[in-house]
Amino acid sequence: MTDFKRDGSHLAYCPPVEKWDDWTEYDPDAWPRRVEKHFQIVPTICFNCESACGLLAYVDKQTGRIEKFEGNPMHPASRGRLCAKGPATINQIHDPDRVLYPMKRSGARGSGQWARTSWDEVLETFGARIRKAIQENRGEEVMYHVGRPGHDFIMERTLQAWGIDGHNSHTNVCSSSARLGYLLWHYADRPSPDHANARFILLLSAHLESGHYFNPHAQRIIEGKMAGAKLAVCDPRLSNTASMADYWLPTYPGTEGAMLLAMAEVILDENRYDAGFVENWTNWQELEVDGFSAKGQTFNATIDALKRHYAKFTPEFAEKETGVRAEVIVKIAREIATAGSRFASHLWRGSASGNLGGWQPARALMLLHVLTGSVGTEGGHNLNAWNKFVPKPFSVPPPQKRWNELLYPPEWPLCTHEMSFLLPHFLKEGRGRIEAYFTRVFNPVWTYPDGFSWIEMLRDEEKVGLHAALTPTWSETAWFADYVLPMGFSSERHDLMSQESYAGKWIGFRQPVARVLKERAGEKFDYTYQANPGEVWEEDEFWISLSWAIDPDGSMGIRQWFESPYRPGQKLTVDDYYGWIFENSVPGLPETAAKEGLKPLEYMRKYGAYEVTKDVHRLNEKPVAAADLTDSQVDLNGVIKKNGKPVGVMVEGQPVVGYNTPSRKLELFSKTLADWKWPEFALPEYYRSHIHRSAQAASQGKPAEDFDPQYMPKVEWPKDSNGDVYTLLPIFRLPNLIHTRSGNAKFLYEISHKNPLWLNPVDAKQVGDIRTGDLLKVHTEIGYFILHAWVTEGLTPGVVACSHHLGRWKVNQDEKIERMSSSWVDLKEVAKGQWKMRQLDGVHPYDSADPDTKRVWWSDAGVHQDITFPVHPDPISGMHCWHQLVRVERAAPGDQYGDIFVDTNLSFAVYQRWKALARPAPGPNGLRRPLWIPRVHRPEEAAFYMKKD
Length: 949
Ligand code: SF4
Known about the structure:
The protein is an alpha/beta fold. It is built from 28 helices and 36 strands. The strands form eight sheets. It has a seven-stranded mixed sheet, covered by helices on one side. Strand 23 (633-634) and strand 24 (639-642) form a beta hairpin. Helix 3 (154-162) runs parallel beside helix 19 (539-550). The protein is globular, with a radius of gyration of 27 Å. The chain starts with 22 loop residues before the first strand and ends in a 34-residue tail after the last helix. The mean pLDDT is 95. The site of iron/sulfur cluster has 13 residues, from helix 5.
């Protein structure tokens, strides 16, 4: 692929920008006649995953209808390419079953009775409830809970303006374990690999199909491979990515850390590490291990201590743990050492999100980068904070003064994000209540573990006073809301985004295509819902209007943050908000726009994206600013402090900024973990997961030598469960689906609409001569689900797997809801906390404005597995550990495909067993969590200290 160039000279394969106002193609419906169709092309940003690829909306000039979406070649990260989900935006916006107007329930919660309401009524109702809560000092009872954010900072700013600690997210069921592993090394909580320039690439888990940076990374991995890089993929499942790799490493799940540390041991043992980098850029002087203290010792003596410590991670030990042959581990370790500073890697879901201690593989993987000196280098590992650009708006409210323990409870002081999946249990324990709850592109009843506990919480009006589901599609969670508020897809909303998708920094601008075109033609709109289909709105304008509704006369000090920087006292518009950012906060953008005679906002509306810089390597080596050096002190480890806060570090006699850690170095030794009651993990270690073979043996009452109840919770099976025990991998994704939002995307569901249980032929025989298509019953710790078998050699024996994404359901067949993707179910609470779900009907062809709905040929909508999973909070990262031990048996007579049973009394008991593993705050000085670790929507510093009472 020709690389992105800002002058557009790489555009040969796409419509050139100068033709975007009138682009001609032949009408495919008129074929074989050649009938011209004229389009206006408007750039926007895909909303279907976090990658934020650039889309071009092709609008028929005659009808004003968007006819298709293709890639925007002017977007520096996606460079004109998309995955299958980008073009399927067309299905989402024209979905005949989508919600087009704000709806309010007209019967009991969950009864499925709805009536149309107005945006004004919604704003008045929520404005009054939130105003009262804030005025009565109950701000913590207002909670915003986000699934897919798709924007940067604007929501944190809104909640800060309200003065509440109310930001909740989905991150602890997604990525927080990997984030903790990275963060402990260098503060930045995500990797940004430079795949295109790497010589060796190591991916843990399916990675690409896992969604994060899918398309931007995929194209660069292929570029790297074409330039000679080798690719290794570590995944128990033969994923699409693994099938493209030079090495497939099907590790037994949860043992990846053992393999990575064995590779580190090879590199250390063979003296192939980058000694200069390790000496200059790690905090080796702080190392304390196995009775050795680096204080007063030489670097060489410290390296010897490290070698002694890691000597136990022999390739043979790793082979025993992982199932990957020792010679393969040695070979890859040597190839990584040869790649040196051009070693790139990525770890996101998979081993990090599946396992107890899943943050340790990220620590161990980073050790390989540190040993090879491939941090901040071309072709190496960069920090997300160096490649992501979040420009500041015209004003930023002060941080909130309060700490909400429903979000950050004391048991998990090191969790990177809110303990969101435990919310129903926290409310059950009486830790608080919610007065006004916004779920935003978020469907916990379906995507979270333990969905029946969510249903119990959401239907209880004592626990949740008022609930609005802000969503572009119907969802299982919306069913239990008081209001369903339709929000826009990619071409129906404004958002500003940036991601660490390559070695560069960029911003992308999502925009409502119909409004933009109508405004170009001279029409005027106060709000985007006036130009969108039905009354579909966008969040930016909703939050601005709601802030005015909370504080109509400005007396609460909230409204001031939502007044125009250009027209004092008047309501902020999206043009004001983004126009100011583009004019003032994006280096180089005003000058670039001016060259074309455009204002910065006009430039972003024209191109949809802007590359800020490619100068992103080795930013740790930047000199400390002169102002920071004035009146600063240097401590014994070379850390430069000003007013008691680190601002840089001395390296080879030079004052440089370093990393954002307490030592300003890469933290090989984590004093933070030692200080916060986990000294045994201060170095990167291998931490056995809750699904380790020893836990599997213990769960069956067999001898389990390595089972350590200090770290591993014991599985207790429900009394009616039977079958042999396997490890279930429930989080691999299908590359063409997107959680709830792909529900009625016909291009996507036609490709994938079932989620059978993968099992190896060896295990199929063991379970009882199972063949593909046979019905299996999978028992979890809290219930069971029933689905078809798919027998395949593409999976490690002893492991079964079921894809995320499928098994959508609805409780009312008459409602025109997600008819291409949902089964109709009978949902019953048969005794207190005991829930049964049975599928009554599947998918059928149906009449609608879209003739394709009559051609729906599939009937299966899959099986909802997540709702049968208990919560597993990792005691350190707080991440939900998705993998689990299950019992698998052939389904019995009377069992039906899609049957589900769950006992939420058992799920509460599992929650308590896992909670008991945690080591709660306070930490040093009475802190709730370390001050240096970032917190989303961070309160003022005083709130970090626990009160004595
Ligand atoms: S990777 Fe696919 S779904 Fe994600 S933003 Fe890009 S095109 Fe959209």
